[in-house]
Amino acid sequence: MKNSKFLLLIFILIAVGIVGGCCVLNSVFPKAQPIRLPKTEEVVSVQVSDSQQHSVELKNEEIELLKSTLAKAVPTRKMSVNDFPAVRPYYKIEAVCLDITYYYFVYTEDNQTYIEVPYEGIYRADSQIHSIITND
Length: 136
Hints:
The protein has three helices and seven strands; from the N terminus they run αββαβββββα. By secondary structure, the protein is α+β, with helices and mostly antiparallel strands.
């Protein structure tokens, strides 16, 4: 009887430790909110440029494909604290809408593709996004 109470106490302490650890992790290193995307009907143009400022404008079907790829991006716990990513090279996607311009930066780090939205979050993305924005 005494042994089962001790085991129950250990189990409760472990459960409280796990729940507490998750709460601390979520408050200190929160996941980014889902990526914000412009409404299709509000998009005036989408420009893609690389680190050397070479740019190209995407066509309507490329914009839709890009938007669906961006929508699948998975939030990470990495924080975006700069206007531009610290990682080079990167691609800048500039979606000009009627009343606001959305900026997304795409880069590869440690064989993972990321999308960074300045001051909002960093998202893990499918590497297919490179072929969309480079027209390969």
